[in-house]
Amino acid sequence: MGKKELKVAFLLALRSLQRGSRSSTILTVLIIGMCFTNMIFLPSMFSGIGQGITKQLVDYETSNVLISPKAGDQYITDLDATLDLINGMPGVQRASPQYSKGATFKYRQRVLGVSVRAISPSDEKEVSPVYTKMVAGSYLGEGDTGEIIIGKPMAGDATVRQEDEFQASLGGVRVGDSITVEYGNGYTKDYRVKGIYYTGWSPVDNAAFVTRTDMEQVEGKALDKADYITVRAKPGYTEQFIKNELLAYGVGENGKVQTMTDLLSKSVGKVLQSFAIINMVSLIVSVIITTVVLFIVITIKTLSSRKQIGILKAIGVDKEVIMHNYGFQVMILGILGIILGIVITLVLAAYMMVHPIVTPEWSAYLYITPWDLVINSVILFCAAVVAGYVPAYQVSREDIQSAMRA
Amino acid sequence: MIEITDLQRIYHMGTVEVRALDGVTLDIEKGEFVGIMGASGSGKTTLLHMVGLLDRPTSGRITIDGLDVLRLTDYEKTMFRLYKLGYVFQDYALVPDLTVMENVSLPAMLRKDRSEEQVKKDSSEILQRTGLYDRRDHLPRELSGGQQQRVSIARAMVNKPDILFADEPCANLDSENSRMVLDLFHEINEELKQTIIMVSHEDWHKDYFHRIVRLKDGKVTSDEKNLSAH
After folding, report:
1. Mind telling me how many Å the CA of A346 is from chain B's nearest CA?
2. Cβ neighbours for A272, distance < 8 A, ≥ 6 positions apart
3. Which of A6, A40, A349, A351 is a good FRET partner for B132, with 20 to 30 A between their CA atoms?
4. Angstrom distance (rounded) from CA A374 to CA A390
């Protein structure tokens, strides 16, 4: 197959698409475009959910590295010395300890069970972006006592009746209101609500924060322990580097050191695995649909052009040229369909970036990498070529007489 | 020179055996304008297709310029048709999505011994000769039947073939266009000494043929020179 033959095959293909049935061409391109969108939409959505969950986990739960009590221990002890050690390590932005205590909140006639998290606000600001999510009032200040910040879903809405609430709340707490908190150890205290935040991450939005200074009053002693410590890495440092450093400095003897990836592989890993199976099914279905559609389109094209194929062979056009003519047609249709699919996908991605799907647990947008676009384009293109060449191969081998009699 | 020896083509339609060609033996000299005539079903088109390498006979032998063409492979036959033979069909058989110029250029574009410039030059020349150069950018559907057939002739002639086959080229044309087409064949034959084998069932066409071969039931019933040809 020489350059001249390929040139003639391409000319025949191009002219057939340019001057043949426009509606058929447009419809075929549209179907390929839709198949491409279908191939990439669901996996990107799941990737977006995965990315969203991961980001929220990092921001509000684990940060880059999480230090939790060793097996058999309830708390990380000798906290001050441990924090001094970690904060002095290279690559560590900040370590923030959290200590939680179960409590019952009372506001007017409402009663709600809540976990109160004691934090050091200046440390926590460097590790978690909750302080940027204030919807009313302000964040805790270092050394604040008698002041509390609560999540918006917990604060509730005064206009919604209790029986109509999606989840239990305090029925419309506002900044400056006073709420009574009864801790599990029997200590009761009235707090002024300093701020209300909303992060979109349910476990945090249904918790409340006080300062460690305040919690020391609740405990009645200095608080030299924590449920866990979250460690934020400086930009440019990997979480694995931080983990290795922590272990090298002996932090592992005082607590269990895990990177966010270690934790994800256990918790979200199974969810992502399920997503991967759904993605694979979606991909296979889309590829099959595209292959079948193109096979039908090219089969119809070849069958309705049998006489012409016979004539072309009669005047000395080789069967390879005829076959590549249909091959080129399907390649052009495939490329146009893929371009259309990419445009549709990017428009959807842009739309969902502005209007993500939001649930109480997570928010989802389309997470698409250039690599996703390339891989899906190549898969679809290959499927299209196979679908086009099979009928073209069959019809190009038909003898001239049978073809011309068609 | 074409030598056809004891050519047979038998079709099997269920249990019925149809002898479309039954022992045809014929020699055609270079430069002859031969008319193959006969009633419908006499085997004219079958003979043309055999000699034109569009179909394979059941038995017999065909040599063109000494070459046993029936021994060629499929690819060699395709190349033989491209380089040595030209065809004009009853229904013009133009590619509907190509312009007049593209239709005519198509066989020339495939030849390895033709440059792009040569293809353009040859196509333009043959279109001028057939009076269709002004219509070179039109699509076949924008032309009349007579014009389409002249495009078909131009396409057949662009590679300057040794033999031109025409299968009832005037069947779909009125008498004026038929005469125009036949005049064109006559001109080509006279000026280029082109061998032309044409199938026809119209009796008045015989005036154009140098030689008339009549077929009936797959057999040659007469083979005579036409001294009164144009």
Report:
1. 35
2. A46, A50
3. A6
4. 24
Mean pLDDT of chain A: 89
**ipTM rounded to 2 decimals:** 0.87
Helix, strand or coil, per DSSP, at residue A259: strand
Whether residue B151 is contained in a domain is answered as: yes
A397 in contact with chain B, both atoms CB, cutoff 8 A: no
pTM beyond 0.90: the answer is no
- Look at residue B19 and tell me if it is in a domain: no
- The count of domains in chain B is 1
A321 contacts in B (CB within 8 Å)?
Answer: 110
Instruction: Tell me which chain B residues have a C-beta less than 8 angstroms from the C-beta of A316.
Output: 78-79, 81-83, 85, 107, 110, 159
Whether B190 has a pLDDT exceeding 80, the answer reads yes
Nearest residue to A338 (alpha-carbon basis) of A300, A303, A377: A377
**Tens of pLDDT, residues A167-188:** 889 989 999 999 999 998 899 9
- From the list B63, B42, B54, the residue with the least C-alpha distance to B199 is B42
3-state percent breakdown (helix, strand, coil) of chain B, nearest 5: 40, 30, 30
Contact criterion met (CB below 8 Å) for A13 and A328 = yes
- Residue closest to B162 by CA, chosen among B185, B192, B191, B199: B192
Residue B143 lies in a domain: yes
How far does B106 lie from chain A, in Å, by closest CA? Answer: 7
Is there a domain that residue B66 lies in? no
